[in-house]
Amino acid sequence: MRTTIGVWLKRVAVGLGLLMALAACLVVAGLAFRAWDALRAPPLEAWHTYVPDEPAADAIDAMDWAAYLRREERLIADVRREVFRAPDDGAAIPISRYVTGSPVDPGTFASDWNRSYVMVPEDTPVGAAVFLHGLTDAPYSLRHLAAVYRDRGFVAVGIRLPGHGTVPAALAEVEWEDWMAATRLAVREAVRRAGPGKRLHVVGFSNGGALAMNYALDAVLDDGLPRPERLVLLSPMIGITAFARYAGLAGLPAFFPAFARAAWLDVLPEFNPFKYNSFPVNGARQAYQVTQAAQDRINQAAVEGRIAALPPIHTYQSVADFTVSTRAIVTSLYARLPANGSELTLFDLNRAIGLGPLLDRSMDTIVGRLLPPAPRAFRTTLVTNADPSTLEAVERAVESGATAEAVTHMGLSFPPTAFSLSHVALPFPITDPLYGSQPGTEERFGINLGALTPRGERGVLIVSLDALVRISSNPFYPYIERRVIEGIDRPPRQGP
């Protein structure tokens, strides 16, 4: 008997040794591929190597709004001096945000939406609202909703989160705690401007959604932090792909100068004035860490019974999202919430477009697989086709604690060429001058990315076709705006 056990233990030990050796080989092979990929990649530009002197979390916590704006002004001036270049003599000016006088040079616009902003209502403020943009993004992305809040009597504060609005290299050294410190600063300033005892809403897009959740959970524990009355989340980063957990390994070859490109997941031309195209490994790492912090806080609050103190949360999310996990929003957040007036709005695929075999068959049942059976503790609304033969959209709503579904015609339709919304589309109306499919003429930012419909041969464009196919504005933005206004006009929630 002992001999048999010994033989099996030896076999197990040998098996574990082989598995460890195989894992080590795979890691080495992966690192070797990353090093090879770095060597054959395009060279890094100044915006990939110059890192602005952003304040860290402790410094931001000690700042007031005016000091933060002074630091921001200095950062932008430093970038213009160290990174921007003059156009080549006699050559056409390229579409680059880092070429002085380029059509997409942010310094040439009437408003540089890479900067923090404050929108103030005409009359005495009735409340304060804070707007937290997404990763690689800028305060531009939430300016439309900020204007909605301003027009309803709120002071609207949109902060440029550290690492953003300057150069992509700034994300190579930022830490997610810096973003949280900036969130606290924005709340302090919004509350100061609105006055004591006023209402507070926090609006977060993508990575900003995770920051908003973290702040709300921190405020439950810390009486020194003003508590939001309501959270509005668009494509919130509550969960992302598992790859982000190990993204740091992809950057290990960058320890050697010859493989510096390995510190970047994407190195691309920068033709968007208000968003980076290039993306460093550290950006993925910090995104993963902030989502993990949000999930840890949610779990802790649920275990300790403090989650009931959270304010109502209204989340707007496309069922098709390549960036964040829609399932995690349901399982890691909404499944833990009490019946506190929260709502989840899902934007379905366009079921009338008729792509047939080109459509992933798993998408046929995606809504049913995302949502738990009714009754649910939160209200659910699904924006979908009135029927599979029409582009007309309806809202299918199930109230919290109910099972019956109410169908409302919205007066809106799916675009005939769009098969779904996307992660990046939700906060932008179709008239947005940069991302809109039908851009307005009041403003121009040198390029319109939402109306491009390029067709041609592979290998010609400098960006992937996936990036161009991705819808960048929301045909249902008027619906989001209307529902946000309902949340603003709704009486404050009574309770903890």
Describe this structure in words.
With 496 residues, the chain is α/β, with parallel strands linked by helices. The chain has one domain (45-86, 94-427): Rossmann fold (3-Layer(aba) Sandwich). It contains 13 helices and 12 strands. It has helices spanning 2-40, 46-49, 57-61, 65-82, 143-151, 176-194, 207-221, 247-250, 281-304, 326-333, 366-370, 465-469, 477-489, and strands at residues 117-119, 127-132, 154-159, 199-205, 230-234, 264-266, 279-280, 313-318, 343-347, 379-385, 392-398, 406-413. Strands 1-3-2-4-5-8-9-10-11-12 form a 10-stranded mixed β-sheet, sandwiched between helices. The chain has a two-stranded antiparallel sheet with strand order 6-7. Helix 6 crosses helix 7 (207-221) and helix 7 (207-221) runs parallel beside helix 9 (281-304). The longest helix is centred in the first third of the chain and has 39 residues, at 2-40. The protein starts with a helix and ends in a 7-residue tail after the last helix.
Q: What features would you highlight for this structure?
A:
12 strands; 496 residues; Rossmann fold; globular; single chain; 10-stranded mixed sheet
Helices and strands in order:
Elements: H1 2-40, H2 46-49, H3 57-61, H4 65-82, E1 117-119, E2 127-132, H5 143-151, E3 154-159, H6 176-194, E4 199-205, H7 207-221, E5 230-234, H8 247-250, E6 264-266, E7 279-280, H9 281-304, E8 313-318, H10 326-333, E9 343-347, H11 366-370, E10 379-385, E11 392-398, E12 406-413, H12 465-469, H13 477-489
Parallel strand pairs: 2-3, 2-4, 4-5, 5-8, 8-9, 9-10
Antiparallel strand pairs: 1-3, 6-7, 10-11, 11-12
Helix pairs in contact: 6-7, 7-9
